[in-house]
Design a protein that fits this description.
This protein is an alpha+beta fold. It is 26% helix and 29% strand. It is built from nine helices and 17 strands. A five-stranded mixed beta barrel has the order 8-9-10-17-11. A five-stranded antiparallel beta sheet has the order 12-16-13-14-15, with no helix packed on it. It has a three-stranded parallel beta sheet with strand order 3-4-5, covered by helices on one side. Strand 8 and strand 9 form a beta hairpin. The longest helix has 18 residues.
């Protein structure tokens, strides 16, 4: 709809304050960067970037040399000045991606649409290009509308995120808001990893926290934005990195913390952290990401431990079917 290939049934699409919802695509000041770049293979990098200004007859409109000045400026921003005379097949994937970006930006559109532009890159280059894209966006000062299925990429790059589920927007917010205060179980499970346990709200602990019966215990938790009456079913969310683990030989955690006994079922080394899979007394699975700062003794499957977290690290969400890995994969395939 932003590009103009679909007509909205209601509402308006405003670019720089002007409603363009009935403006044809070729009349909108919008450009797109595609997943596979679509560079002209017979043209040099310079000519690829110059294609847009030449098509718009920029030299005629602004005077001789306007095209060269505009292209040279964009090549400097994307750091490809030394590659101006090469053809696309002489460039790496990251360099091709930057050529596609420069070609789309050279006419300074009101909005740039990016359709998973880093999908074809390997992991390290993908991470490097994420920061390059952020730098370029800040330098040119143009709104980027970026579609991705990579949740980490969305959190890393965005000022604002819209999480869509079956064609509907579940939540719009900053990366911090989406991650720390998801509005629904779907958002909590889709953005980052989250423990999601079905429970029942039992009452209010104080002004800041409610009580929820979950994992075979009654625990304090932050209320979400949806009001759930006492006795109503709910879902408790806790991110794995917020969970602390201690051996059963230690004293049970005291103070204002939520604490549950659990049994280690699996351990996976992830480099910076160890991913612990544990089983709660009600057979629910608890996932904890344990870093070296927790200074745990060597754990093995079958060991019993305490898991605990601060009440403010949890969030009560409306009851919903908790998505399985298979469901999320199926949804991504469909989209």
């Amino acid at each position: 709809m932003i590009a103009g290939f679909e007509t909205p049934t209601e509402g308006a699409i405003r670019l720089e304050g002007t409603d363009v919802s009935r403006t044809p695509p070729n009349k909108r000041n919008v450009n797109t960067v595609f997943q596979h770049y679509a560079l002209f293979p017979h043209m040099t990098v310079w000519d690829n970037v110059a294609y847009g200004p030449r098509s718009k007859k920029l030299d005629k409109a602004r005077g001789k040399g306007a095209v060269r000045k505009s292209v040279d400026n964009l090549l400097e921003i994307v750091r490809l000045t030394d590659f101006a005379e090469r053809r696309p097949d002489q460039l790496s994937g990251g360099q091709q991606q930057r050529v596609a970006l420069a070609r789309a930006l050279v006419n300074y559109p009101s909005a740039l649409l990016l359709d998973e532009p880093l999908g074809a890159l390997d992991l390290k280059l993908r991470h490097a290009m994420q920061f390059e894209l952020k730098r370029i966006q800040r330098e040119v000062g143009i709104t980027f509308v970026y579609v991705t299925h990579d949740q980490e990429e969305a959190l890393t790059m965005s000022d604002r995120i819209a999480v869509m589920n079956a064609g509907n927007v579940d939540q719009i917010g900053t990366p911090n808001e989406i991650y720390d205060r998801p509005a629904t179980v779907f958002v909590a499970s889709f953005i980052g990893e989250a423990n999601l346990w079905a429970g029942r709200r039992t009452g209010r602990a104080n002004r800041d926290f409610v009580e929820i019966e979950v994992l075979g215990s009654t625990l304090k938790a932050r209320p979400g934005d949806t009001t759930i009456e006492p006795g109503g079913v709910a879902t408790l969310m806790v991110r794995p990195e917020r969970i602390k683990v201690s051996p059963l030989s230690n004293e049970a955690p005291t103070g204002d913390v939520a604490s549950v006994r659990a049994t280690v079922s699996d351990l996976t080394f992830l480099g910076p952290v160890v991913r612990l899979s544990l089983t709660a007394p009600d057979d629910s699975t608890i996932i904890a990401h344990v870093g070296p700062e927790q200074d745990l003794p060597m754990l093995r499957p079958g060991d019993e431990v305490f898991v605990c977290w601060a009440p403010e690290a949890s969030l009560v969400l409306p009851a919903a079917d908790i998505p399985t890995i298979e469901h999320l994969e199926e949804m991504l395939d469909d989209s």
